[in-house]
Amino acid sequence: MKKIERVCAITHILTENPNRDFSLGYFAELFGCAKSSISEDIKLIRETMDDGSLGTLETTAGTKGGVRYVPAISQEETEKILLGLKKAFEEDDRMLGSGLLYTSDILFNPDYMKGAARIFARQFARSGADMVVTVETKGIGVALFTAELLHLPLAVLRRESRVSEGSIVSVNYMSGSSARIQQMSLSKRALKPHTKALIIDDIMRAGGSIKGIEDMLAEFDAQCCGIGAVIVAGGIEGKKIGDYVPLLLMNETENNKVTMDINPLLLAKQQRP
Questions:
Q1: In terms of Cα–Cα distance, which of 140, 145, 155, 139 is closest to 124?
Q2: Phi and psi torsions of 134, nearest 5°
Q3: Which of 185, 187, 224, 252 could cross-link 161 (Cys pair, CB 3.0–4.6 Å)?
Q4: Which of 155, 149, 100 is nearest to 122 (CA)?
Q5: pLDDT, tens digit (0-9, with 9 covering 90-100), for 164-179
Q6: What is the C-alpha separation between 181 and 183, in angstroms, rounded?
Q7: How many other CB atoms sit within 10 Å of the CB of residue 145?
Q8: Cβ within 8 Å of residue 75, ≥6 positions away
Q9: Is the pTM of this model over 0.85?
């Protein structure tokens, strides 16, 4: 295989498997060439990515030395994604009865949720997470894309237990928005003790559901190492949880219309790997 063909193939493999380690020996065997040739290819790919702000290639030294692709997102891309989400959620016909906001078409749209996941992946790249956790159903899309970018498994808590889950653990929690006691469950096989979990959700109001997830993690002797939500409603004060990262802040609805503010902290400084 010619050098340019190897470079294209290696780039494709790395970018399709973000945050996954590949040894130089793996590529050398795959393409039938020396490790020194692979090292030169990696150097060229790294220079190209650095010049175009396309991500970072991290390498490890030694006999088992390898390389991984760490996705990056520029400040310009971050702002573009957030403005796109803001515009979509502020469309005139989104408000339903009882002050509810229709969000399914956005939260299940890969174009929107891949962009949101890129921001979350950048924010929590150094969180030390072993697992991404969410609760069914609308947060599954963005949580799964975030898990893919961080090369982590995803655990989904159910609001109703299923026989197919096997033995489960259930917790009761107080919903902040409806002030009702609700239940969520998780298979005993889903989490290992001492796991560090990153919680990703779609819309957070009072934070009751996320507090319930934290209680569930405690049942597994696991801990939360970060919280991200696409939308936080009702301002940032008075929540049942502490530190979290929202993408958008939803204001009180007026005249059957909703307005969103972009989290200013996401635009305050350049994000780097």
A1: 145
A2: -145, 175
A3: 185
A4: 149
A5: 788 999 999 887 666 6
A6: 7
A7: 22
A8: 267, 270, 271
A9: yes
What tokens appear for 123 in the block?
């924010």
Residue 212: enclosing H or E segment and its boundaries? helix 208-219
Q: Please report where in the chains the tokens 């009751």 appear, as a residue.
A: 208
Token digits of residue 146: 């975030």
Distance CA 196, CA 216 (A): 13
Burial letters for 8-33: b for 16+ Cβ neighbours within 10 Å, e otherwise?
eebbeebeeebbebbbbeebbeebee
86, 89, 91, 95: CA torsion to nearest 10: -150
At 29 the three-state DSSP class reads helix
Burial 105-128 (b: 16+ CB within 10 A, else e): ebbeeeebbbbbbbbbbbbbbeee
Distance CA 48, CA 217 (A): 41
CB atoms within 10 A of CB 252: 10
Long-range contacts of 235-241 (CB under 8 A, 24+ apart): 238/206, 239/176, 239/204, 239/206, 239/207, 240/176, 240/206, 240/207, 240/208, 240/210, 240/211, 241/207, 241/210, 241/211, 241/214
Closest by Cα among 185, 235, 183 to 205: 235
pLDDT of 271 reads 45
Q: From CA 97, how far away is CA 256, in angstroms rounded? A: 9
> Per-residue pLDDT tens for 192-220?
999 999 999 999 988 889 999 999 999 99
